[in-house]
Write a structure and sequence with these properties.
Layout: H1 18-33, H2 37-46, H3 48-61, H4 63-68, H5 81-90, H6 92-102, H7 105-112, H8 116-120, H9 126-142, H10 146-159, H11 165-168, H12 177-201, H13 206-231, H14 241-253, H15 263-286
Helix pairs in contact: 1-9, 2-6, 3-10, 5-12, 5-14, 6-12, 7-12, 9-12, 10-12, 12-13, 12-14, 12-15, 14-15
């Protein structure tokens, strides 16, 4: 069809940088979440663990409080690597439900509304698109894992007395807890993020994507448990992503191994899982690629 309109003008402004293009996905998603009370409630509940952990740290240094309420000192936790590992493990249910509440529509809705070809016709490639979607959950899950964990680390370091083991061995042992905590948080976030994006890209029904995520996480755990009982071996725990994440946590924080999964195999499992997710995501999004001049 010929175009007779001649009033178009050449663009006289520079396109936004990659940071602004990537953050557009997060901004649009957050605007949709602002009216969802369930998500707000879940976010507030996820910080309840932080408040409890902060109260425990305060109780450890407040001798008057301990004496007044007759709290046995032996029941109070020590600030160490195990303390932070337990905190992050306790956040896993919130990470899962937050991923389930926010993640499934990220790509599925674009496919359902036929918006993916239009998005890819803009000055954005499929890797930028996937990274933008990845950042949506990455930022949200960071706010309930390593960000509050870092606040706990700094707070505990500032208020504990100089005679405590945490301060005495701070530069030789305690300081390494912070990067370990951040690394483990990234393991959790990357795994859940890639899994939900994978299932979201396989269907245009975001509810089905959520069901697939639940079936994979819990189904793998059930299969691992049944296989372990049938074959009388706990090595089948490696089939479950949760067990592999737990094995990595115990290895990083050096608190033993309760899963019978060697840390090296757990890392190989997750790296393989990440690779499969990235490959499928790239292939799926590439199918909607639009030629641009």
């Amino acid at each position: 069809m010929p175009v007779y309109e001649t009033g178009y003008r050449t663009r006289d402004w520079e396109p936004k940088g990659i940071f602004y293009r990537l953050m557009a996905f997060s901004r649009y998603t957050y605007l949709q979440l602002k009216d969802k009370r369930r998500v707000h409630t879940l976010f507030v509940m996820s910080w309840a663990t932080f408040v409890i952990a902060l109260a425990l740290i305060y109780a450890c240094v407040n001798t008057r409080l301990i004496e007044r309420f007759r709290i046995p000192p032996r029941i109070l936790p020590s600030l160490n690597a195990h303390f932070f590992m337990v905190y992050l493990i306790s956040q896993l249910p919130f990470v899962f439900f937050f991923t389930l509440a926010v993640g499934p529509p990220l790509i599925a809705n674009d496919i359902h509304h036929k918006a993916l070809p239009m998005i890819l016709s803009k000055p954005i490639n499929r890797w930028e698109y996937l990274l933008g979607k990845f950042l949506v959950l990455f930022l949200l899950l960071s706010c309930i894992t390593w960000v509050p964990g870092t606040i706990l680390f700094i707070t505990g370091t500032l208020i504990l007395p100089g005679s405590s083991n945490w301060i005495v061995y701070f530069w030789s042992e305690s300081i390494y807890v912070l990067p370990i905590m951040i690394i483990f948080s990234f393991v959790i976030i990357i795994t859940m993020n890639l899994l939900v994006l994978l299932f979201s890209s396989l269907t245009e029904n975001y509810r089905l994507a959520g069901v697939e995520l639940v079936m994979f996480i819990f189904g793998a755990s059930v299969v691992a448990r049944i296989a372990g009982v049938v074959f009388h071996s706990r090595r089948w725990n490696i089939l479950s992503p949760i067990n592999n994440i737990t094995s990595i946590a115990e290895s990083l924080f050096k608190v033993g191994n309760t899963t019978s999964i060697p840390p090296a195999l757990a890392w190989l499992y997750l790296i393989f899982l990440w690779g499969v997710c990235i490959l499928v995501l790239s292939t799926r999004v590439k199918a909607f690629h639009v030629y641009r001049e």
